Amino acid sequence: MLKFKCLIVIAFILSVNAQAQDKFYTKTGKIEFSSKAPMEDIEAKNKTLAGLLDTKTGMMQFSVLMKGFEFPKALMQEHFNENYIESDKYPRGDFKGSISNNKDINYTVDGTYPAEVIGKLTLHGVTRDLKTKGTVKVENGKVQTNATFNVLLSDYQIKIPSVVKEKLSNNIVVMVECKMDPLK
Amino acid sequence: MKPKLALLLLAIVLFNKANSQDSTDLFKQLGVDEPQKELVYASFKSSRIIMSHSVEMLREGVLDFRILHRFGKVSGGTYEFFGLDGPATVRLGLDYGLTDNISFGIGRSAYKKELDGFLKYRPLQQSKGPGAFPVSLVAVAGMTYAADTITKRYHSSDRFAFYWQALIGRKFNDALTLQIMPTMLHKNIVAQGEHNDLFAGGFGGRIKLSKRISFNVDYYYVINQVPGITNPLSVGFDIETGGHVFQLHFTNAKGINERAFLAETADHWDNGDIQFGFNISRSFQLKKKRS
Protein backbone atom coordinates (compact mmCIF):
# COMPACT_ATOMS: atom_id res chain seq x y z
CA MET A 1 0.00 0.00 0.00
CA LEU A 2 2.73 2.40 0.97
CA LYS A 3 4.57 1.43 -2.19
CA PHE A 4 1.65 2.53 -4.25
CA LYS A 5 1.33 5.80 -2.42
CA CYS A 6 4.99 6.46 -3.08
CA LEU A 7 4.48 5.64 -6.74
CA ILE A 8 1.62 8.11 -6.97
CA VAL A 9 3.70 10.84 -5.41
CA ILE A 10 6.57 10.08 -7.77
CA ALA A 11 4.25 10.03 -10.75
CA PHE A 12 2.86 13.41 -9.76
CA ILE A 13 6.32 14.86 -9.34
CA LEU A 14 7.30 13.50 -12.74
CA SER A 15 4.11 14.80 -14.20
CA VAL A 16 4.73 18.28 -12.84
CA ASN A 17 8.30 18.17 -14.08
CA ALA A 18 7.28 17.05 -17.53
CA GLN A 19 5.10 20.09 -18.05
CA ALA A 20 7.30 22.45 -16.13
CA GLN A 21 7.43 25.42 -18.44
CA ASP A 22 8.68 23.81 -21.57
CA LYS A 23 6.36 25.83 -23.65
CA PHE A 24 5.62 29.52 -23.57
CA TYR A 25 2.93 31.36 -25.45
CA THR A 26 1.22 34.67 -25.98
CA LYS A 27 -1.84 35.88 -27.81
CA THR A 28 -1.08 39.54 -27.29
CA GLY A 29 2.36 39.88 -28.80
CA LYS A 30 3.32 43.12 -30.49
CA ILE A 31 4.26 43.33 -34.12
CA GLU A 32 4.99 46.58 -35.91
CA PHE A 33 6.23 47.43 -39.33
CA SER A 34 7.39 50.58 -41.01
CA SER A 35 8.14 51.80 -44.49
CA LYS A 36 10.33 54.80 -45.13
CA ALA A 37 9.88 56.39 -48.55
CA PRO A 38 10.88 59.84 -49.81
CA MET A 39 7.36 61.28 -49.54
CA GLU A 40 5.77 59.31 -46.77
CA ASP A 41 6.61 57.26 -43.70
CA ILE A 42 4.16 54.52 -42.87
CA GLU A 43 3.87 52.71 -39.57
CA ALA A 44 1.42 50.10 -38.43
CA LYS A 45 0.95 48.25 -35.18
CA ASN A 46 -0.74 45.04 -34.17
CA LYS A 47 -1.06 43.83 -30.60
CA THR A 48 -2.67 40.46 -31.27
CA LEU A 49 0.29 38.43 -32.42
CA ALA A 50 0.04 34.80 -31.33
CA GLY A 51 3.33 33.18 -30.50
CA LEU A 52 4.53 29.86 -29.19
CA LEU A 53 7.99 28.79 -28.08
CA ASP A 54 9.12 25.32 -27.12
CA THR A 55 12.20 25.87 -25.00
CA LYS A 56 13.19 22.21 -25.20
CA THR A 57 13.59 22.17 -28.94
CA GLY A 58 13.76 25.88 -29.72
CA MET A 59 10.77 25.57 -32.06
CA MET A 60 8.85 28.79 -32.56
CA GLN A 61 5.62 29.62 -34.25
CA PHE A 62 3.90 32.94 -34.82
CA SER A 63 0.64 33.87 -36.43
CA VAL A 64 -1.00 37.26 -36.93
CA LEU A 65 -4.27 38.48 -38.39
CA MET A 66 -3.52 41.01 -41.10
CA LYS A 67 -6.73 42.92 -40.41
CA GLY A 68 -5.48 43.59 -36.88
CA PHE A 69 -2.84 46.06 -38.09
CA GLU A 70 -3.70 49.60 -37.12
CA PHE A 71 -2.52 52.59 -39.08
CA PRO A 72 -2.67 56.24 -38.06
CA LYS A 73 -4.63 56.97 -41.26
CA ALA A 74 -7.84 55.04 -41.94
CA LEU A 75 -7.30 55.15 -45.68
CA MET A 76 -3.85 53.57 -45.35
CA GLN A 77 -5.37 50.74 -43.39
CA GLU A 78 -8.02 50.17 -46.03
CA HIS A 79 -5.47 50.21 -48.85
CA PHE A 80 -3.17 47.87 -46.92
CA ASN A 81 -5.96 45.32 -46.59
CA GLU A 82 -7.55 45.85 -50.00
CA ASN A 83 -4.74 46.58 -52.39
CA TYR A 84 -1.52 45.25 -50.96
CA ILE A 85 -1.78 42.40 -48.46
CA GLU A 86 -5.25 41.34 -49.71
CA SER A 87 -6.32 40.22 -46.28
CA ASP A 88 -9.61 38.71 -47.43
CA LYS A 89 -7.68 36.25 -49.57
CA TYR A 90 -4.70 35.86 -47.24
CA PRO A 91 -5.97 36.65 -43.74
CA ARG A 92 -2.87 35.60 -41.78
CA GLY A 93 0.83 36.00 -41.72
CA ASP A 94 2.63 32.95 -40.33
CA PHE A 95 6.10 32.15 -39.22
CA LYS A 96 7.38 28.69 -38.36
CA GLY A 97 10.95 28.18 -37.36
CA SER A 98 13.40 27.50 -34.61
CA ILE A 99 16.15 29.05 -32.57
CA SER A 100 19.30 27.54 -34.00
CA ASN A 101 21.42 28.30 -30.91
CA ASN A 102 18.77 27.12 -28.47
CA LYS A 103 21.40 25.16 -26.48
CA ASP A 104 23.10 28.39 -25.49
CA ILE A 105 19.97 29.74 -23.86
CA ASN A 106 19.41 28.80 -20.24
CA TYR A 107 15.73 29.24 -19.66
CA THR A 108 16.11 28.66 -15.93
CA VAL A 109 18.45 31.59 -15.39
CA ASP A 110 17.28 35.15 -15.77
CA GLY A 111 19.09 37.13 -18.40
CA THR A 112 19.08 38.29 -22.00
CA TYR A 113 20.41 35.86 -24.57
CA PRO A 114 21.15 36.48 -28.25
CA ALA A 115 19.15 34.17 -30.49
CA GLU A 116 19.42 33.20 -34.12
CA VAL A 117 16.18 32.24 -35.74
CA ILE A 118 15.73 30.32 -38.97
CA GLY A 119 12.36 29.54 -40.44
CA LYS A 120 9.74 30.15 -43.03
CA LEU A 121 7.57 33.25 -43.29
CA THR A 122 4.26 33.07 -45.13
CA LEU A 123 2.79 36.37 -46.28
CA HIS A 124 0.35 37.17 -49.08
CA GLY A 125 0.25 33.47 -49.94
CA VAL A 126 4.00 33.28 -50.52
CA THR A 127 6.34 31.27 -48.28
CA ARG A 128 10.01 32.20 -48.09
CA ASP A 129 12.94 31.43 -45.87
CA LEU A 130 13.69 33.94 -43.17
CA LYS A 131 16.79 34.19 -41.05
CA THR A 132 17.16 36.80 -38.38
CA LYS A 133 18.80 37.67 -35.12
CA GLY A 134 16.96 38.56 -31.99
CA THR A 135 17.02 38.19 -28.26
CA VAL A 136 15.43 35.93 -25.70
CA LYS A 137 14.96 37.50 -22.30
CA VAL A 138 14.25 35.26 -19.34
CA GLU A 139 12.77 36.97 -16.33
CA ASN A 140 10.80 35.60 -13.38
CA GLY A 141 9.80 32.44 -15.17
CA LYS A 142 8.60 34.32 -18.23
CA VAL A 143 10.19 34.61 -21.62
CA GLN A 144 10.32 37.65 -23.87
CA THR A 145 11.36 37.29 -27.49
CA ASN A 146 12.39 40.24 -29.61
CA ALA A 147 13.42 40.42 -33.22
CA THR A 148 13.70 42.93 -36.03
CA PHE A 149 13.96 41.88 -39.63
CA ASN A 150 13.42 43.18 -43.14
CA VAL A 151 10.86 42.01 -45.63
CA LEU A 152 10.99 42.89 -49.31
CA LEU A 153 7.50 43.36 -50.70
CA SER A 154 8.68 42.13 -54.09
CA ASP A 155 9.66 38.80 -52.48
CA TYR A 156 6.05 38.25 -51.51
CA GLN A 157 4.52 39.36 -54.80
CA ILE A 158 3.16 42.59 -53.39
CA LYS A 159 3.32 45.10 -56.20
CA ILE A 160 3.81 48.83 -55.72
CA PRO A 161 2.06 50.84 -58.43
CA SER A 162 4.23 53.53 -59.99
CA VAL A 163 1.99 56.34 -58.65
CA VAL A 164 2.88 55.46 -55.06
CA LYS A 165 6.56 54.60 -55.67
CA GLU A 166 7.56 57.71 -53.72
CA LYS A 167 5.24 56.88 -50.85
CA LEU A 168 5.86 53.21 -50.21
CA SER A 169 9.18 51.47 -49.78
CA ASN A 170 9.80 47.96 -51.04
CA ASN A 171 11.85 47.36 -47.92
CA ILE A 172 9.65 46.93 -44.86
CA VAL A 173 11.17 46.79 -41.38
CA VAL A 174 9.29 44.44 -39.07
CA MET A 175 9.66 44.50 -35.30
CA VAL A 176 8.35 41.71 -33.09
CA GLU A 177 8.08 41.74 -29.31
CA CYS A 178 6.39 38.88 -27.46
CA LYS A 179 6.07 38.55 -23.72
CA MET A 180 5.28 34.89 -23.28
CA ASP A 181 3.71 33.12 -20.34
CA PRO A 182 4.29 29.48 -19.48
CA LEU A 183 1.72 27.21 -21.08
CA LYS A 184 -0.19 25.28 -18.47
CA MET B 1 -7.53 -0.99 -4.24
CA LYS B 2 -4.81 -2.03 -6.64
CA PRO B 3 -6.68 -1.56 -9.90
CA LYS B 4 -7.81 1.89 -8.79
CA LEU B 5 -4.25 3.00 -8.20
CA ALA B 6 -3.14 1.54 -11.47
CA LEU B 7 -5.86 3.54 -13.22
CA LEU B 8 -4.71 6.69 -11.48
CA LEU B 9 -1.17 6.10 -12.63
CA LEU B 10 -2.36 5.47 -16.14
CA ALA B 11 -4.32 8.72 -16.05
CA ILE B 12 -1.24 10.63 -14.97
CA VAL B 13 0.84 9.08 -17.73
CA LEU B 14 -1.83 9.92 -20.29
CA PHE B 15 -2.00 13.45 -18.94
CA ASN B 16 1.70 13.77 -19.57
CA LYS B 17 1.30 12.47 -23.10
CA ALA B 18 -1.38 15.06 -23.79
CA ASN B 19 1.01 17.74 -22.69
CA SER B 20 3.75 16.83 -25.09
CA GLN B 21 1.88 17.30 -28.35
CA ASP B 22 3.57 19.12 -31.17
CA SER B 23 3.27 22.86 -31.48
CA THR B 24 0.80 22.91 -34.36
CA ASP B 25 -1.79 21.18 -32.23
CA LEU B 26 -1.01 23.51 -29.37
CA PHE B 27 -1.70 26.48 -31.60
CA LYS B 28 -5.08 24.99 -32.25
CA GLN B 29 -5.62 24.43 -28.54
CA LEU B 30 -4.86 28.09 -27.94
CA GLY B 31 -7.69 28.91 -30.31
CA VAL B 32 -5.44 30.92 -32.60
CA ASP B 33 -6.95 29.59 -35.81
CA GLU B 34 -10.52 29.89 -34.64
CA PRO B 35 -12.58 32.09 -36.91
CA GLN B 36 -13.63 35.35 -35.29
CA LYS B 37 -16.45 37.71 -36.07
CA GLU B 38 -15.10 40.47 -38.21
CA LEU B 39 -16.67 43.58 -39.70
CA VAL B 40 -16.80 43.98 -43.45
CA TYR B 41 -15.19 47.11 -44.81
CA ALA B 42 -14.54 48.57 -48.25
CA SER B 43 -17.92 47.74 -49.73
CA PHE B 44 -17.47 50.72 -52.01
CA LYS B 45 -14.46 52.84 -52.86
CA SER B 46 -16.14 55.96 -51.54
CA SER B 47 -19.09 57.13 -49.50
CA ARG B 48 -21.15 57.66 -52.69
CA ILE B 49 -21.93 55.16 -55.41
CA ILE B 50 -22.20 57.94 -57.99
CA MET B 51 -25.14 60.17 -57.04
CA SER B 52 -26.30 58.27 -53.98
CA HIS B 53 -24.92 57.70 -50.55
CA SER B 54 -23.35 54.25 -50.30
CA VAL B 55 -23.32 51.96 -47.29
CA GLU B 56 -19.63 52.79 -46.97
CA MET B 57 -18.96 55.23 -44.13
CA LEU B 58 -16.10 57.64 -43.59
CA ARG B 59 -13.86 56.48 -40.79
CA GLU B 60 -13.62 58.52 -37.65
CA GLY B 61 -11.73 61.75 -38.13
CA VAL B 62 -11.72 61.66 -41.93
CA LEU B 63 -12.66 64.78 -43.88
CA ASP B 64 -13.74 64.09 -47.43
CA PHE B 65 -13.63 66.98 -49.87
CA ARG B 66 -15.85 66.19 -52.82
CA ILE B 67 -15.96 68.00 -56.15
CA LEU B 68 -18.89 66.81 -58.24
CA HIS B 69 -18.98 68.06 -61.78
CA ARG B 70 -21.32 67.42 -64.71
CA PHE B 71 -20.67 68.68 -68.22
CA GLY B 72 -23.32 69.50 -70.79
CA LYS B 73 -25.30 66.97 -72.82
CA VAL B 74 -23.44 64.45 -74.92
CA SER B 75 -26.20 64.85 -77.54
CA GLY B 76 -24.83 68.35 -78.24
CA GLY B 77 -22.52 66.55 -80.68
CA THR B 78 -19.27 67.90 -82.07
CA TYR B 79 -20.53 71.50 -82.00
CA GLU B 80 -20.77 71.37 -78.21
CA PHE B 81 -17.87 68.93 -78.12
CA PHE B 82 -20.23 66.32 -76.63
CA GLY B 83 -21.15 68.54 -73.76
CA LEU B 84 -17.68 69.49 -72.68
CA ASP B 85 -18.41 73.09 -73.74
CA GLY B 86 -21.10 73.18 -71.09
CA PRO B 87 -23.30 74.35 -69.58
CA ALA B 88 -21.65 72.56 -66.71
CA THR B 89 -22.89 72.23 -63.17
CA VAL B 90 -20.98 71.57 -60.02
CA ARG B 91 -21.43 70.71 -56.36
CA LEU B 92 -18.70 71.26 -53.81
CA GLY B 93 -19.04 69.40 -50.55
CA LEU B 94 -17.35 68.54 -47.31
CA ASP B 95 -18.19 65.33 -45.44
CA TYR B 96 -16.79 64.42 -42.07
CA GLY B 97 -16.68 61.16 -40.13
CA LEU B 98 -17.65 61.95 -36.56
CA THR B 99 -17.30 58.30 -35.61
CA ASP B 100 -16.94 55.17 -37.74
CA ASN B 101 -20.74 54.99 -37.81
CA ILE B 102 -21.87 58.62 -37.91
CA SER B 103 -20.97 61.17 -40.54
CA PHE B 104 -22.39 64.42 -41.76
CA GLY B 105 -21.80 66.68 -44.69
CA ILE B 106 -22.63 69.97 -46.32
CA GLY B 107 -22.55 71.01 -49.92
CA ARG B 108 -23.46 73.68 -52.37
CA SER B 109 -24.67 73.12 -55.90
CA ALA B 110 -24.56 75.66 -58.70
CA TYR B 111 -27.93 74.38 -59.92
CA LYS B 112 -30.61 76.52 -58.20
CA LYS B 113 -27.83 77.81 -55.93
CA GLU B 114 -28.78 75.07 -53.57
CA LEU B 115 -27.26 74.31 -50.19
CA ASP B 116 -27.64 70.88 -48.72
CA GLY B 117 -26.71 69.02 -45.60
CA PHE B 118 -27.10 65.48 -44.40
CA LEU B 119 -26.61 63.18 -41.46
CA LYS B 120 -25.70 59.56 -42.07
CA TYR B 121 -25.84 56.85 -39.43
CA ARG B 122 -24.98 53.17 -39.63
CA PRO B 123 -26.71 51.19 -36.86
CA LEU B 124 -25.68 47.83 -38.30
CA GLN B 125 -22.56 46.84 -40.16
CA GLN B 126 -22.14 43.72 -42.23
CA SER B 127 -19.89 41.15 -40.60
CA LYS B 128 -18.64 37.65 -41.17
CA GLY B 129 -17.61 34.73 -39.01
CA PRO B 130 -19.57 33.48 -35.99
CA GLY B 131 -22.61 35.65 -35.22
CA ALA B 132 -22.32 37.44 -38.54
CA PHE B 133 -24.84 39.96 -39.83
CA PRO B 134 -25.43 39.69 -43.58
CA VAL B 135 -25.99 43.33 -44.55
CA SER B 136 -25.09 46.87 -43.61
CA LEU B 137 -27.94 49.16 -42.71
CA VAL B 138 -27.51 52.91 -43.04
CA ALA B 139 -30.02 55.70 -42.44
CA VAL B 140 -29.62 59.05 -44.16
CA ALA B 141 -31.56 62.24 -43.45
CA GLY B 142 -30.90 65.38 -45.43
CA MET B 143 -32.25 68.75 -46.35
CA THR B 144 -31.79 71.16 -49.21
CA TYR B 145 -32.22 74.92 -49.37
CA ALA B 146 -32.60 76.63 -52.72
CA ALA B 147 -31.14 80.12 -52.59
CA ASP B 148 -31.91 81.15 -56.17
CA THR B 149 -34.03 84.21 -56.91
CA ILE B 150 -35.57 82.85 -60.10
CA THR B 151 -38.06 80.34 -58.73
CA LYS B 152 -41.14 82.06 -57.34
CA ARG B 153 -41.73 81.36 -53.67
CA TYR B 154 -44.25 82.61 -51.15
CA HIS B 155 -42.47 81.89 -47.91
CA SER B 156 -38.85 81.33 -47.05
CA SER B 157 -39.85 77.85 -45.89
CA ASP B 158 -40.71 77.11 -49.52
CA ARG B 159 -37.02 76.91 -50.22
CA PHE B 160 -36.59 73.75 -48.18
CA ALA B 161 -36.88 70.12 -49.12
CA PHE B 162 -36.10 67.06 -47.01
CA TYR B 163 -35.15 63.50 -47.77
CA TRP B 164 -34.89 60.28 -45.82
CA GLN B 165 -33.21 57.13 -47.00
CA ALA B 166 -32.51 53.66 -45.75
CA LEU B 167 -29.55 52.00 -47.40
CA ILE B 168 -29.41 48.24 -47.21
CA GLY B 169 -26.28 46.88 -48.77
CA ARG B 170 -24.26 43.73 -48.91
CA LYS B 171 -20.73 43.07 -50.06
CA PHE B 172 -21.25 39.62 -51.58
CA ASN B 173 -17.58 39.08 -52.28
CA ASP B 174 -14.45 41.03 -52.97
CA ALA B 175 -15.81 42.21 -56.31
CA LEU B 176 -19.57 42.56 -55.97
CA THR B 177 -21.54 44.90 -53.72
CA LEU B 178 -25.24 45.66 -54.13
CA GLN B 179 -27.53 47.96 -52.23
CA ILE B 180 -31.15 49.04 -52.28
CA MET B 181 -32.31 52.47 -51.15
CA PRO B 182 -35.93 53.07 -50.25
CA THR B 183 -36.20 56.86 -50.29
CA MET B 184 -38.73 59.54 -49.47
CA LEU B 185 -38.44 63.14 -50.56
CA HIS B 186 -40.58 65.94 -49.20
CA LYS B 187 -40.67 69.30 -50.95
CA ASN B 188 -42.22 72.18 -49.08
CA ILE B 189 -43.50 73.76 -52.27
CA VAL B 190 -44.51 72.10 -55.51
CA ALA B 191 -46.22 73.17 -58.72
CA GLN B 192 -49.92 72.49 -59.08
CA GLY B 193 -50.64 68.81 -59.67
CA GLU B 194 -47.31 67.73 -58.21
CA HIS B 195 -46.93 65.73 -55.03
CA ASN B 196 -45.19 67.14 -52.02
CA ASP B 197 -43.94 63.69 -51.18
CA LEU B 198 -42.08 61.54 -53.66
CA PHE B 199 -41.36 57.91 -52.96
CA ALA B 200 -38.54 56.13 -54.73
CA GLY B 201 -36.78 52.83 -54.74
CA GLY B 202 -33.12 53.08 -55.49
CA PHE B 203 -30.70 50.42 -56.59
CA GLY B 204 -26.96 50.62 -56.78
CA GLY B 205 -23.93 48.44 -56.96
CA ARG B 206 -20.39 47.97 -58.02
CA ILE B 207 -18.27 45.35 -59.66
CA LYS B 208 -14.58 45.60 -59.00
CA LEU B 209 -12.63 45.19 -62.22
CA SER B 210 -9.21 45.42 -60.60
CA LYS B 211 -7.85 46.38 -57.22
CA ARG B 212 -8.24 50.06 -57.97
CA ILE B 213 -11.00 50.25 -60.57
CA SER B 214 -14.67 49.40 -60.23
CA PHE B 215 -17.75 49.67 -62.43
CA ASN B 216 -20.69 51.34 -60.69
CA VAL B 217 -24.41 51.65 -61.35
CA ASP B 218 -26.78 53.97 -59.52
CA TYR B 219 -30.51 54.15 -60.32
CA TYR B 220 -33.80 55.35 -58.81
CA TYR B 221 -37.31 54.35 -59.70
CA VAL B 222 -39.60 57.15 -58.55
CA ILE B 223 -43.01 55.62 -57.80
CA ASN B 224 -45.24 58.70 -58.00
CA GLN B 225 -43.25 60.72 -60.49
CA VAL B 226 -44.84 63.73 -62.16
CA PRO B 227 -45.22 63.65 -65.98
CA GLY B 228 -42.25 64.90 -67.93
CA ILE B 229 -39.79 63.89 -65.22
CA THR B 230 -37.83 60.71 -65.55
CA ASN B 231 -35.82 58.35 -63.36
CA PRO B 232 -32.15 59.13 -62.82
CA LEU B 233 -29.58 56.57 -63.92
CA SER B 234 -25.83 56.93 -63.61
CA VAL B 235 -23.15 54.47 -64.68
CA GLY B 236 -19.46 54.91 -64.37
CA PHE B 237 -16.10 53.87 -63.08
CA ASP B 238 -14.36 54.46 -59.77
CA ILE B 239 -10.64 54.92 -60.05
CA GLU B 240 -8.72 55.01 -56.82
CA THR B 241 -5.22 56.42 -56.77
CA GLY B 242 -4.28 56.50 -53.10
CA GLY B 243 -5.66 59.61 -51.45
CA HIS B 244 -8.12 60.34 -54.28
CA VAL B 245 -11.08 58.52 -55.74
CA PHE B 246 -12.13 59.62 -59.23
CA GLN B 247 -15.63 58.68 -60.25
CA LEU B 248 -15.99 59.09 -64.01
CA HIS B 249 -19.52 58.53 -65.18
CA PHE B 250 -22.43 59.20 -67.50
CA THR B 251 -25.76 60.32 -66.09
CA ASN B 252 -29.07 61.78 -67.18
CA ALA B 253 -29.39 63.68 -63.90
CA LYS B 254 -28.48 67.33 -64.09
CA GLY B 255 -28.95 67.97 -60.40
CA ILE B 256 -26.42 66.71 -57.93
CA ASN B 257 -28.33 66.56 -54.67
CA GLU B 258 -31.14 64.16 -53.76
CA ARG B 259 -33.93 66.68 -54.32
CA ALA B 260 -32.62 67.73 -57.70
CA PHE B 261 -31.94 64.32 -59.18
CA LEU B 262 -35.11 62.69 -57.86
CA ALA B 263 -37.55 65.46 -58.71
CA GLU B 264 -35.99 67.31 -61.63
CA THR B 265 -34.33 64.83 -63.95
CA ALA B 266 -35.93 65.59 -67.31
CA ASP B 267 -33.43 64.06 -69.71
CA HIS B 268 -33.67 60.59 -71.20
CA TRP B 269 -30.87 58.14 -71.78
CA ASP B 270 -32.38 56.86 -75.02
CA ASN B 271 -32.18 60.31 -76.65
CA GLY B 272 -28.52 60.54 -75.77
CA ASP B 273 -29.42 63.35 -73.38
CA ILE B 274 -26.80 62.30 -70.93
CA GLN B 275 -23.85 64.10 -69.49
CA PHE B 276 -20.33 63.14 -68.80
CA GLY B 277 -19.39 63.87 -65.21
CA PHE B 278 -16.79 63.25 -62.61
CA ASN B 279 -16.67 63.19 -58.85
CA ILE B 280 -13.37 63.74 -57.13
CA SER B 281 -13.07 62.63 -53.55
CA ARG B 282 -10.04 63.68 -51.57
CA SER B 283 -9.71 62.35 -48.02
CA PHE B 284 -7.84 64.06 -45.24
CA GLN B 285 -7.21 62.39 -41.92
CA LEU B 286 -7.86 65.21 -39.46
CA LYS B 287 -7.77 63.13 -36.33
CA LYS B 288 -5.14 60.44 -36.06
CA LYS B 289 -5.97 57.22 -34.36
CA ARG B 290 -4.78 56.78 -30.83
CA SER B 291 -2.48 53.81 -30.53
Question: Explain this structure to me?
Answer:
The complex is a heterodimer of chains A (184) and B (291). The longest helix of chain A has 17 residues, at 2-18. Chain A has 184 residues and is α+β, with helices and mostly antiparallel strands. The relative contact order of chain A is 0.20. Chain A has helices at 2-18, 74-84, and strands spanning 23-36, 41-54, 59-65, 92-99, 111-123, 126-139, 142-152, 171-182. The radius of gyration of chain A is 20 Å and the shape is elongated. An eight-stranded antiparallel barrel of chain A has the order 1-2-3-4-5-6-7-8. Chain A has one domain (22-182): Lipocalin (Beta Barrel). By secondary structure, chain B is mainly beta. Chain B has one domain (38-285): Beta Barrel (Porin). Chain B is 11% helix and 44% strand. Chain B has three helices and 14 strands. In chain B, the strands form two sheets. Chain B has a twelve-stranded antiparallel barrel. Chain B has a two-stranded antiparallel ribbon with strand order 1-6. In chain B, strand 10 (197-208) and strand 11 (213-222) form a beta hairpin. Chain B is elongated and about 105 Å long. Classes of the chains: A alpha+beta (184), B mainly beta (291).
The secondary-structure class of chain B comes to: mainly beta
Distance between the termini of chain B: 61 Å
Fraction in beta strands of chain A: over 45%
- Principal-axis shape of chain A: elongated
Report the CATH C-level class of chain B.
Mainly Beta
In CATH terms, what is the fold-level topology of chain B?
Porin
- Helices of chain B, by number, come to 3
Task: Summarize the biggest pleated sheet of chain A.
Answer: 8 strands, antiparallel, barrel
- CATH fold label of chain A: Lipocalin
State the separation between the terminal residues of chain A, measured CA to CA.
Answer: 31 Å
**Secondary structure tally: strands of chain A:** 8
CATH superfamily of chain A: Lipid/polyisoprenoid-binding, YceI-like
Strand order of the largest sheet of chain B: 2-3-4-5-7-8-9-10-11-12-13-14
Helix and strand pattern of chain A: HEEEHEEEEE
Protein name (chain B): DUF5777 domain-containing protein
Pfam families (chain B): DUF5777 (PF19089)
Keywords (chain B): Signal
InterPro entries (chain B): DUF5777
